[in-house]
Amino acid sequence: MTAFVLKRLGFAVITLFAVLTIVFFIVRVLPGDPAMAILGDQASQGALNALRARLGLDQPLYVQYFQFLGGVLVGDWGVSMVSGRPVIQEILKVLPATLELTFVSLVLGAAVGIPLGVWSAVRRNKLPDYITRIASLLGLSFPAFVSAVLLLLVFAIQLRWFPVISSGQGTTLSDRLRDLALPAINLGLIMAAYITRVSRSAMLEVLNQDYVRTAHAKGLAFATIIWRHCLRNALIPVVTVVGLYLGILIGNSVLTEIVFNRPGLGKLIIGALNQRDYTMLQGMMVIYTLIVVLVNLITDLTYGLIDPRIKYS
């Protein structure tokens, strides 16, 4: 177990280093001059040169690269080129809102998707199966920003059940839940569509195993066979999809936060892109990479908890 964790951590460090290197150079080739984006088109050449020197943009690229890596290792991610405040503080201020939305969407997707997938597999080629498959296909067909706009039009503007702008600053629990409802439903339903299809496929495979027929022959209750024996063996593919899709879910949360005008990494990254804020972009990519690497590690460790037959290697 210890060797497995160390091995996975080693792969995580290599992955993080590779992603940071790619992010550093991609950010540098973005069109536009960050100094001009900050000072404006009317700034003098002297002011532009002074700002580039202050930001370290006049140094050779390899010097900037090693300064960037050294800063990441010691927790110094630099200061925003626009606000002048430390990048880590700017990110940590809005990160809880994004993590809250992602977590609630994940729980909602699993709570809806797994039972629907099991139900669809048990009722294979019958009306509930057809309805579930069509519904999951529709959920996969809509981009996150399209479904977000539709939810706003129906439930916020027409029915007025939820606020149009999800400020995320509610003082009471009910206010926070109302602000969170539509964004979480938007992402959660997309997640549920993925999980439903994977759960159905995994359950169909498990239902054909010999031990399931043996359990029926012994007279075990149908619910016991499905939820206690079959589902546990079908969870491995589901956990894999959840781990892989979580990175996509965080990416979709960016679009969702923009549509619902919700505070989070989404608005921060768009502002950084528009203003060519290199340090802010790099800091957010570090956060995204750390989250994805951590989720993949947790996913690998979860396999052994679900199925003890899996050996760590």
Automatic annotation (TrEMBL):
<feature type="transmembrane region" description="Helical">
    <location>
        <begin position="134"/>
        <end position="157"/>
    </location>
</feature>
<keyword id="KW-0813">Transport</keyword>
<keyword id="KW-0472">Membrane</keyword>
<keyword id="KW-0812">Transmembrane</keyword>
<keyword id="KW-1003">Cell membrane</keyword>
<feature type="transmembrane region" description="Helical">
    <location>
        <begin position="234"/>
        <end position="255"/>
    </location>
</feature>
<dbReference type="InterPro" id="IPR000515">
    <property type="entry name" value="MetI-like"/>
</dbReference>
<dbReference type="InterPro" id="IPR045621">
    <property type="entry name" value="BPD_transp_1_N"/>
</dbReference>
<dbReference type="InterPro" id="IPR035906">
    <property type="entry name" value="MetI-like_sf"/>
</dbReference>
<comment type="similarity">
    <text>Belongs to the binding-protein-dependent transport system permease family.</text>
</comment>
<protein>
    <submittedName>
        <fullName>ABC transporter permease</fullName>
    </submittedName>
</protein>
<feature type="transmembrane region" description="Helical">
    <location>
        <begin position="285"/>
        <end position="306"/>
    </location>
</feature>
<keyword id="KW-1133">Transmembrane helix</keyword>
<feature type="transmembrane region" description="Helical">
    <location>
        <begin position="9"/>
        <end position="30"/>
    </location>
</feature>
<dbReference type="Pfam" id="PF00528">
    <property type="entry name" value="BPD_transp_1"/>
</dbReference>
<feature type="transmembrane region" description="Helical">
    <location>
        <begin position="177"/>
        <end position="195"/>
    </location>
</feature>
<dbReference type="Pfam" id="PF19300">
    <property type="entry name" value="BPD_transp_1_N"/>
</dbReference>
<feature type="transmembrane region" description="Helical">
    <location>
        <begin position="101"/>
        <end position="122"/>
    </location>
</feature>
<feature type="domain" description="ABC transmembrane type-1">
    <location>
        <begin position="95"/>
        <end position="299"/>
    </location>
</feature>
